[in-house]
Amino acid sequence: MKIYSVLDPEFAAYGRVWADAPAAYTDAVATALDASTPLPEATDYVASEPALEELDIADGLKMLLFGGRTAQLGWCNGHNTRLNCLEYHRASEFNLGTRDFILLLAKLDEVEGGVLDTACVKAFRAPAGVLVEVFATTLHYAPCMVDAEGFRVLVALPAGTNGPLPQLPPKAATAGDAPYLWAADKWLLAHADSVEAAQGARVGLAGENIDIAPYL
Fold it and tell me: Hey, which CATH number is domain 3-207, 1.10.10, 2.60.120, 3.30.70, 1.10.3210?
């Protein structure tokens, strides 16, 4: 598998790099992530982290990213090299790592009949301290590490995203992509080999459960 950079033109179909994001914002986020969030042996996610939410720049950052929409600043930290699942939201997600990290991405329009061939997945390396937007039409999941030191990555999203699974009205429960709804504003396509599939997530990834470890 080729590992592109988010600075390569190939990334433009999946997201964009906010190269001009104020350093006062990005530096504060990176410092708080390093100082106040854990680095699990596996992978963990917190949707709203007080150490980020209470930063002096938090409101300004949220305004910049979501234009006044209520938002949350959380993190995904740990050690991971596998695909396992892909998810999407109805809005962009923003990431910033304290160290380089890798995103495994595909496009929503590559899903056919509720299934994505994992051969469509591409890998993109994001440099430390760079704010990256992942479009709403981009399938993504947990970051991957570039070495044994793991990753700490900001996850900024509209408030409530990844919250408890809502109870859909009976008439809506099987319409559109409702069968893939795994949490609030989180539609998930799981690989059959994943923990999420064993927990009942809809299997929607066909092909290899990609592991980037051999390419690092």
Answer: 2.60.120
